[in-house]
Design a protein that fits this description.
The complex is a heterodimer of chains A (237) and B (218). With 237 residues, chain A is an alpha/beta fold. Chain A has 6 helices and 8 strands. In chain A, strands 1, 2, 3, 4, 5, 6, 7 and 8 form an 8-stranded mixed beta sheet that branches. Chain A is elongated and about 55 Å long. Chain B contains 1 helix and 14 strands. In chain B, the strands form 3 sheets. In chain B, strands 1, 3, 4, 7, 8 and 11 form a 6-stranded mixed beta sheet that branches. A 5-stranded antiparallel beta sheet of chain B has the order 2-14-5-10-9, with no helix packed on it. A 3-stranded mixed beta sheet of chain B has the order 6-13-12, with no helix packed on it. Classes of the chains: A alpha/beta (237), B mainly beta (218). At the A-B interface, helix 1 and strand 8 of A face helix 1, strand 9, strand 10, strand 12 and strand 13 of B.
Chain lengths: 237, 218
């Protein structure tokens, strides 16, 4: 079998594995929810880079070099838009934390911010949680590896997108009480995440249109964060 | 590599079959014939049994000939009832309502205790949309030990409402150009309309295990 044949089989198996994968979730048991009055909101892992992403970039059809070019294109576009966002006073992590805080308060929880150190290069749940000091009943561990604008492909519009991973652990014994993912403008079926349809008011046919209307685009992204925070609050009620 | 080819083929086929089986449906009730006369009380004597940790989920297809009930206000809802297993340890029930063509059954759930009173209601609003299905999880603890029946019914307040969603995806076309094969990939979108409905397919997974409980299990 030649090299390209080998690549074909590896790609086929990878597709099969991808089809089986999905997020692992656990709903919140109302009987356990009753004991949670105060939540310790751990410092979320959210990048300040506003991502600009094409789920399937045309360059990906052109082998390894095309994939590298596609990746480079997306990195450049993300950097350009992040600069435009900064110019409008938009700092992603701060805005997101504010939306989440508002959502949790709305769900009836008292919220206390708890600072934790996280790796700046990876987005994942913590492996260890702070020891209980009695000030909170549970810790909320959040990370988002995608906040920004995505288009399905080269001929489809960019829309605000948020993918939030959430875990609630009991402070006393670190038992996972709730775990889920919430996707605003999911690609495909959302791989098991709770999916929220994006507003059709914030669509940008091409990247230049996104840049030219940065203020409006950021308004759409803030809406996406707000709605995601509200959905989290709904899940934790 | 040549010897490994049948092995790789087997893995690829196994993965496809395994993943396809995740969505298999075993309807436990699908009646034909004329629509039934709607009753004014739940008919629980014909409740189906719900088995814990069954190898396949219980699937119910709601159709125009499914049992129906007329509510005091005159609205009719379709429903299906299950007899719950006797309580011995905590368990959970995951309920999924799947889009079937243009219909998505709008579910509501009621738990009935041994006095035939409604002990819990899980309204439509407690279901979350996950891709092409509505889903919720119901917990059964010792405080629910006297619950004997579960009724899933269509939610009259939202049934009939239409929604349009944008579905994204991609397609891959393998192309052979000379000796070099490559894959042309294209991201796509389409609008899909569905209507919250009194008919559709609902699956029930009754589980005693498999709940995530400690960090690092995933």
């Amino acid at each position: 079998m030649n090299k390209s044949g080998q690549i074909f089989w590896v790609a086929l198996i990878a597709l099969g594995l991808q089809a089986c994968s999905g997020i692992q979730y656990r709903a919140l048991d109302p009987s356990e929810r009753r004991d949670i009055k105060t939540i310790g909101l751990l410092t979320p892992a959210v990048s300040d880079t506003v991502a600009v992403k094409m789920s399937v970039h045309p360059g990906q059809s052109l082998g390894m070099i095309g994939t590298l070019l596609a990746r480079s294109d997306m990195i450049d576009k993300s950097a350009d838009f992040t600069q435009a966002a900064s110019g409008n006073g938009f700092v992603c992590s701060k805005r997101f934390e504010k939306s989440l805080y508002a959502g949790l308060t709305k769900a009836g929880y008292a919220v206390k911010k708890v600072h934790v150190s996280r790796s700046t290069s990876s987005y994942e749940f913590l492996t260890r949680y702070p020891e209980a000091d009695g000030s909170v009943d549970a810790y909320l561990d959040l990370y988002s590896d995608l906040v920004g604008f995505t288009a399905a492909g080269g001929t489809t519009p960019y829309r605000p997108t948020v993918l939030l991973h959430v875990r609630l652990v009991r402070a006393s014994d670190h038992k996972v009480l709730y775990q889920d993912a919430i996707a605003y403008n999911a690609f495909g079926d959302g791989a098991g995440a709770v999916t929220i349809a994006p507003s059709r008011s914030y669509e940008f046919a091409v990247f230049s249109s996104l840049m030219a209307n940065a203020r409006q685009a950021l308004e759409g992204l803030q809406l996406a964060m707000k709605v995601t925070g509200e959905e989290l609050a709904r899940q934790l009620r | 590599m040549k010897q490994a080819r049948p092995f790789l083929l087997l893995i690829a086929v196994s993965l496809v079959v395994a993943c396809a089986n995740q969505g298999s449906i075993k309807a436990v009730r699908k009646e034909g014939g004329p629509a039934p006369i709607c009753t004014r009380a739940w008919q629980l004597n014909s409740a189906a049994t719900l088995e814990l940790d069954a190898s396949q989920p219980k699937a119910v297809e709601f159709t125009s000939s499914s049992p129906c009930l007329v509510e005091p206000g005159g609205r009719a809802v379709t429903y299906f009832s299950f007899a719950l297993p006797s309580y011995s340890a905590p368990w959970v029930l995951r309920v999924e309502s799947h889009i079937d063509g243009r219909a998505l059954f709008a579910p509501e759930i009621m738990l009935i205790n041994r006095d035939r009173k409604v002990s819990r209601r899980i309204p439509y609003e407690r279901f979350s949309l996950r891709g092409n299905q509505l889903q919720t999880t119901i917990f059964f603890n010792s405080e629910h030990a006297d619950e004997q029946y579960l009724i899933v019914r269509s939610a009259p307040d939202v049934s009939g409402q239409g929604t349009t969603v944008v579905e994204s995806g991609y397609f891959v076309v393998p192309i052979i150009a000379g000796l070099i094969p490559f894959f042309y990939m294209q991201g796509t979108e389409r609008e899909r309309e569905y209507v919250l409905s009194h008919s559709g397919i609902v699956k029930f997974y009754a589980l005693t295990q498999g709940l995530l409980s400690r960090p690092g299990e995933n």
